[in-house]
Amino acid sequence: MDWKNLGFGYVKTDYRYVSNYKDGKWDEGILTTDEKVVLNESAGVLQYAQTCFEGLKAYKTVDGRVVCFRPDLNAQRMIQSAQRLEMPPFPAERFLEAVKSVVKKNIESVPPYGSGASLYIRPYMFGTNPVMGVKPADEYQFRIFVSPVGPYFKGGAKPITLRIPDFDRAAPLGTGHVKAGLNYAMSLHAIVDAHKQGYNENMYLDSATRTKIEETGGANIIFVTKDNKVVTPKSSTILPSITRRSLMYVAQKYLGLEVEERIIYKEELNEMKECALCGTAAVLSPVGKVNDHGKEIVFPSGMEKAGEITQKLYDTLTGIQLGRIEAPEGWIMEIK
Ligand code: PLP
Ligand code: COI
């Protein structure tokens, strides 16, 4: 495996975890080599997109251990996603056990320390039995597969360009705060259009007023103000990113910076010194500029490299994930 040149894509690995829900309960689950899912033509997921997912990573640490970063928060968030979509939650303890077992069974696929790659873990669940009227399924499947991945954005640490699109991602009382497949289905047109026009991603605004900054299709956003405060949008319609919550803690407790989660208006973009996308896949990807309908906002950190604070946050976060820096209590789950 050419670990250093891996992109962010699906690579088939040996084992995946499968558990089925029927007659009101989850079965005990198995590890299987069969990557195929065979469904009834009218399965709930196929007709009404009844599916949600999670994303987390396993890393090889500097001292040769294999660890996951805050998987308990993914387990919790998946329960919230399932509840919003009227699906039976997969119990958190079982989620953690399943993550452990599937990573252990694919241990050879965990990229080596120093390669810049990691093992992406994708838990997901979907309605399996036939439905015709608009209603939740009665039967579900929960699965986890893993895939070694490199950087989400080609070019690794080079700053990217966002545009403010004329599409919305989430409605005020909709599903933007959970990890529902439908949020991503509706972002596909916007991302294809953004790419066609030469932008890496969309910076979505709140759909109610279109004045506030929300997030991108696959990551939250953080900014550094001119007085070195780390700020991030407060909104009930964005996904509560585990990476973002961790970065805000790191900024405050490890770097001694002031942090704030607050409404950020589009007008304030001009006043920001640095900007970056954060998420499991994106890690912390610097943003060099934003295009707002032809008007370019270039952050002072520029298009050549990450801003100074973004770089410190990146080094500290990845240092914690890779075992170079001591992690806060409970952030690291070792696979053994
Ligand atoms: N926002 C969206 C829309 C996402 O898809 C993701 C990815 O999971 C994130 C934010 C980042 O969340 P996390 O840091 O928990 O991976
Ligand atoms: C993740 O970061 O885990 C995500 O789910 C983002 C996705 C767009 C790849």
Rounded Rg = 20 Å
Q: Quickly give the structural class.
A: alpha+beta
Number of helices: 7
What is the CATH superfamily classification of the largest domain?
D-amino Acid Aminotransferase, subunit A, domain 2
- Average residue pLDDT: 97
CATH class division of the largest domain: Alpha Beta
Under the CATH scheme, the architecture of the largest domain is Alpha-Beta Barrel
Tell me the CATH topology of the largest domain.
Answer: D-amino Acid Aminotransferase, Chain A, domain 2
Shape: globular
How far apart the termini lie comes to 23 Å
Order of helices and strands: EEEHEEEHHEEEHHEEEHEEEEHE
| Strand residue percentage | 25-35%
**The number of domains:** 2
Uncertain runs with pLDDT below 50, 5 residues or more? none
- Helical percent range? 10-25%
Main β-sheet description: 9 strands, antiparallel
Number of beta strands: 17
- Assembly category: single chain
| Hetero groups | pyridoxal-5'-phosphate, 2-OXO-4-methylpentanoic acid
Explain how this protein is built.
The mean pLDDT is 97. The two termini are 23 Å apart. The chain is globular and about 55 Å long. The longest helix has 14 residues, at 71-84. It is of the alpha+beta class. Helices cover 22% and strands 26% of the residues. A hairpin with a 5-residue loop joins strand 5 and strand 6. Helix 2 crosses helix 3. The protein has seven helices and 17 strands. It has helices at residues 44-48, 71-84, 92-105, 181-185, 188-196, 242-253, 308-321, and strands spanning 16-22, 25-26, 30-32, 51-53, 56-60, 66-69, 118-127, 140-149, 160-163, 201-202, 220-225, 230-233, 259-262, 272-279, 283-292, 295-298, 332-334. The protein has two domains: 3-149, Aminotransferase class 4, branched-chain amino acid transferase, N-terminal domain (D-amino Acid Aminotransferase, Chain A, domain 1, 2-Layer Sandwich), CATH 3.30.470.10; 160-321, Alpha-Beta Barrel (D-amino Acid Aminotransferase, Chain A, domain 2), CATH 3.20.10.10. Strands 1, 2, 3, 4, 5, 6, 7, 8 and 17 form a nine-stranded antiparallel sheet that branches. Strands 9, 10, 11, 12, 13, 14, 15 and 16 form an eight-stranded mixed sheet that branches. Bound molecules: pyridoxal-5'-phosphate and 2-OXO-4-methylpentanoic acid (COI). Residues 55, 218, 279-281 line the site of 2-OXO-4-methylpentanoic acid. The site of 2-OXO-4-methylpentanoic acid (COI) has 5 residues, from loops.
